[in-house]
Amino acid sequence: MSRVRVRNLTKVFGKRTQQALEMVKEGKSKQEILEQTGATVGVHNVSFDVEDGEIFVIMGLSGSGKSTLVRLINRLIEPTSGSVYINEDDVSKMSKDELRQVRRTKVNMVFQNFGLFPKRTVLENAEYGLEIRGVGKKERQQKAEQALDNSGLLSYKDQYPEQLSGGMQQRVGLARALANDSEILLMDEAFSALDPLIRRDMQDDLLELQEKVQKIIIFITHDLNEALRIGNRIALMRDGKIMQIGTGEEILTNPANDFVREFTEDVDRSKVLTAENIMEPALTINVETEGPNVALQRMRKEEVSMLLAVDRKRDLKGSLTAESALDARKNEKKITEVLDKNVQKISKDALVTDIFDLIYNSPTPLAVMNENDRLIGVVVRGSVIGAMTDKTEGTAEKEGVNIDA
Fold it and tell me: Which of 24, 52, 57, 69 stands the most exposed, by the fewest C-beta atoms within 10 Å?
């Protein structure tokens, strides 16, 4: 069961709510609805789930409804209809006291403007959420110091916010949210006010912290590159509706509609697509059961001059050229005796931009390995060039030593 479940969530600002919703169903634009009813559709019929340990990014342009949506999750904005479940509790039906408890213990929000108290030290700022929960001084100090340590800020604990850079202030805001030990972090444009270099550092910090704490993070941004960099999944919004939910790779390679396609067309895909996205099936020979005659027959049939050699478990043993197979047959050698064991291996998660130099200097395809170090495919030069030029179909090169499938 997902820890956060959003179901049919809708928010219409204004009085003529029902008329506005009917116009939405008729396909009217936000501007048309505003002109005819005076109501503004902030979010319409949004549903999604977020899992433990996931960074779920909600993104869109200004006016898309993303900031309204994140405020509906912790009911800073009251929904017109729909439900938000945290575990099995429906936030939309909670009393004020229940909601206050959820905000104090389960959901924390990190804003763009940091929200630090200027007259409190870094440690005192990090303790604040625990303080209002009534946690004792010794315990809250211990938790706050641990959060600051995780964020690389412990040595600054006695300084004041004005003594820190903007990026460090944002780290304190993040540490404060983590110190509260909430299950869920809502981050609304948390890094957008930072300059590009600090912003990238903060993205790195967030990813590193998430490795340690494994929270549910719902992150709002208007920056597609930021969304692609940090999001496990992305929800792309327009006019209060979700256009598509998926991984960055899914959204780039299989856009749901023209809006998504146009929105993502300027993205550098080489920094998002991985070896798994562009790999081809590997033509192989099993060194435990097959010999040089089988290898040569397979090469003739597939019109290639090299195979990758594996065992029954798909462990990679090396590469076998036609010349080596002929030598093995002529001199009655085992395939294992003539293999070239210097095959370049890459992880299935390797980015295309990182693969380019490897494939450029490699006389053979790159062997793509899964998390168990088993062969799952190959990357050829043409596929990398195609991905980097956004022409992913029909670009594989027929090179003498390449394995084409």
Answer: 52
